[in-house]
């Protein structure tokens, strides 16, 4: 089993990689050619490093990235700079998710995909909704902030386009609330939908807890079965 992690150099992605390393799980990461990598990850015997940008990989390169892979974890996001927020690629996450899914479908194989999203995503397929004021704000954010729109489009692709009945690609969309840094994992709870307003009464979710839950999903078949094809929300207790 090889697990591929996208966005492995990000604040949450690197914690996912470390969680996998702690369990001696072979992990393949894709990071930009110019990106610096923490020494413990770089020297780990369990981590294979591939340099490049997911948005620039051709079909054969993407096939190589997914070779012998059983799970893909996407922690991709836009860097919090003007260029990262408003520059290209504007559909980084969506294009990556679609590219992986199309590659898997053409190769006649099966794959699990975990997408880290946000409570800013509303899963309307299960009846989620927000008050009018919040809906207006979310609509404005999707127009004004390309990363928000990208996150919504990526999750919508899995929920509404790929759906739950695809035999080749099984997926879970993980939705943390406001991300915070903690040195250690702590108790957390998983709910099927947000239990508080992500705009006006947001909860906290530590990146380390996100890394733990995502790794549990990738390695525990029973937990995966509980959330496959769903969009769980994770909060610190």
Automatic annotation (TrEMBL):
Transmembrane segments: none
Pfam assignment, any one: NAD_binding_10
Gene3D superfamilies, A to Z: NAD(P)-binding Rossmann-like Domain
Domain NAD(P)-binding positions: 7-221
PANTHER family: FLAVIN REDUCTASE-RELATED, OS06G0360300 PROTEIN
Protein name per the record: SDR family oxidoreductase
Origin species: Paenibacillus sabuli
Lineage summary: Bacteria, Bacillati, Bacillota, Bacilli, Bacillales
